[in-house]
Specification:
Length: 344
């Protein structure tokens, strides 16, 4: 009987030890999953839904506040650029915006073939361009207009003298003493209507236009969107010791920017972007196909997507995805229905 009691006690002791070991194991497992839920787990990869490809830094204008200046004259050969764009498409890109510099500075066919490739071969939802407009010709629309969803023209003032002071001018848009920038804006607006390309206007609010009332002009042109940006300072681009521009005289306060917005609150297509909402909410790809990280107030490049792939490069982009969605980064950006419509 005594031996049986001892066997039972030993068995119970062994069961207790097994149970204790299991509890320790379970607690450690629970802590492990709890740490992962608090952020130790790897974040899901960033999807490059909308990419701004600044494929050139060269420009024929001299805007004093420019934050993407001619630090190099390089631009990617067409076939290499197409390889990079395909990599982005494979990772989820649905919209690409071609910018500069001035996208038409290397001739209409280079930017035209990029546009055609993205729409016809990659079948992206939206292909757009931001341009100062001065080098665009009607013949370009005839050749490539079917492949372009949106054309945004930068216009900071409807007063010729103000455009001159800002530097929104070049030899190609002068006629004697007359600045032709606004005239060209209206011409491009007409071409967009003719070739069924959505027309957009971008404006940078700065010292020289902050008191202007553009409501009547914008309402008459009726763009799909009027993007209104606060002048942004970026170290090494338009401020600092080695910058090619000095945008300090153009910089305005948050209060002045808000006054401009309040003055134009009746314009229904106005889309405002302060420095806070703009700085890190764009995926910027430079001329070497490197993502540009603006978190620290400059532009720190990643490695090229052609060398390390999209996933590795985009981790260094400093991209604020939440702000991208908050500022309205996704909108009705495809123009295919309009192009098919007989009444546009």
């Amino acid at each position: 009987m005594l031996e049986m009691e001892m066997l039972i006690r030993a068995f119970l002791l062994w069961c207790g030890q097994i149970l204790a070991a299991f509890l320790v194991f379970w607690q450690n497992l629970e802590k492990k999953f709890k740490r992962r839920s608090l952020g130790d787990a790897p974040s899901p990869p960033i999807v490059p839904l909308s990419v701004n490809y600044h494929f050139t830094r060269k420009c024929n204008y001299k805007c004093g506040f420019c934050f993407h200046t001619a630090l190099t004259s390089f631009y990617m050969p067409l076939e290499e650029a197409k390889c990079g764009l395909r990599l982005l498409k494979d990772k989820g890109m649905k919209k690409v915006n071609f910018s500069g510099g001035e996208p038409f500075i290397h001739g209409g066919d280079h930017i035209g073939e990029l546009v055609r490739f993205c729409k016809q071969d990659l079948r992206l939802d939206s292909v757009s361009i931001v341009s100062n407009g001065s080098l665009i010709r009607k013949s370009w629309f005839r050749k490539y207009g079917d492949h372009l969803d949106i054309l945004a023209v930068s216009c900071d003032s409807f007063v010729d003298e103000t455009n001159e002071r800002i530097g929104r001018c070049g030899e190609t848009n002068r006629a004697g003493a007359h600045n032709k920038h606004v005239d060209k804006l209206h011409q491009i607006h007409a071409w967009c209507r003719e070739y069924r390309v959505s027309f957009k206007i971008n404006t940078v609010v700065n010292t020289f236009n902050k008191d202007e009332d553009m409501s009547e002009h914008i309402t008459r042109l009726n763009p799909m969107r009027w993007k209104v940006f606060q002048c942004l300072l970026l170290e090494g681009e338009n401020c600092g010791e080695n910058a090619l521009r000095d945008a300090e005289p153009f910089y305005i306060s948050d209060e002045d920017f808000q006054k401009f917005l309040d003055r134009h609150k009746s314009v229904p297509v106005l889309v405002p972007e302060s420095n806070k909402s703009m700085q890190n909410s764009y995926l910027l790809l430079d001329e070497y196909m490197r993502f540009l990280n603006c978190v620290d107030g400059g532009k720190k490049p990643s490695k090229s997507i052609l060398d390390v792939g999209v996933d590795n490069a985009i981790n260094d982009a400093g991209f604020d995805e939440a702000m991208f969605f908050k500022r309205g980064g996704v909108y009705e950006w495809s123009n295919e229905d309009k192009k098919k419509s007989l009444d546009w």
